[in-house]
Design brief:
There is one protein chain. The protein has one helix at 148-158, and strands at residues 3-12, 15-24, 46-50, 55-59, 65-70, 73-74, 90-93, 96-97, 120-123, 126-131, 138-140, 144-147, 172-175. It is mainly beta and 181 residues long. The strands form four sheets. It has a five-stranded mixed sheet with strand order 5-4-3-13-7, with helices on one face. A four-stranded mixed sheet has the order 8-9-10-12, covered by helices on one side. A two-stranded antiparallel sheet has the order 1-2. It starts with a strand and ends in a 6-residue tail after the last strand.
Length: 181
């Protein structure tokens, strides 16, 4: 279980009292998640990614949120390739699954080699994958970065690639639209 410490300074008279509160950071504690508790699932599992909330959620076949976490999606502009890197919004299917040793064939530009542990490709070269660089921002080259332990859980405990048993339809991935300013 993840633990998040929240440091809060409370001021009384002329002295400051710092208190540390431990709050639930469990991925399975879905109360207060910045994404919906339920979605229309049409009786299948879904991963929803919201680039505005900087969050992802795994929903069971009944549409209930069962795990969520921070997601870093594509940046408005990537200097190295001189174009927008936004993650394309829409509904997709996982079509390829990788292991802990998955790496990018393109980034860092131009030769590739960036670590993408537990990659789950859903749209061209875009994948949900683990990273040590997950932040509350849209800063990737188009992939969805999640914490490595979350990517491992998604890859081995939740996501299905295309197979005979699911009529060659991998797990559904929904990328919500970016807010327009």
């Amino acid at each position: 279980m993840k633990k998040i410490l929240l440091l809060s300074a409370l001021f009384f008279s002329h002295s400051a009292l710092a208190e540390v509160y431990e709050i639930s950071g469990s991925a399975f504690a879905t109360d207060g998640a910045p994404i919906p508790q339920y979605v229309a699932s049409h009786h299948e599992k879904i991963i929803m990614v919201d680039p505005n909330a900087h969050a992802w959620g795994a929903y069971n076949a009944q549409g209930k949120l069962i795990r969520w976490g921070i997601a870093t999606t594509g940046a408005n502009w990537c200097r190295d390739i001189q174009q927008s890197c936004r993650t394309s919004s829409g509904s997709y299917r996982v079509y390829s699954l990788g292991s802990a040793s998955c790496v990018s064939s393109k980034f860092p530009y131009p030769g590739g080699g960036a670590a993408m542990p537990y990659c789950m490709y859903f749209n061209g070269g875009a994948a949900i994958h683990g990273s040590d660089d997950v932040e509350f921002a849209n800063a990737s080259h188009g992939c969805v970065r999640v914490h490595v332990e979350d990517a491992k859980w998604l890859r081995y405990q939740f996501v299905e690639g295309p197979s005979v048993s699911n009529q060659y339809r991998g797990t559904k991935i929904v990328i919500k639209s970016y807010q327009t300013n």
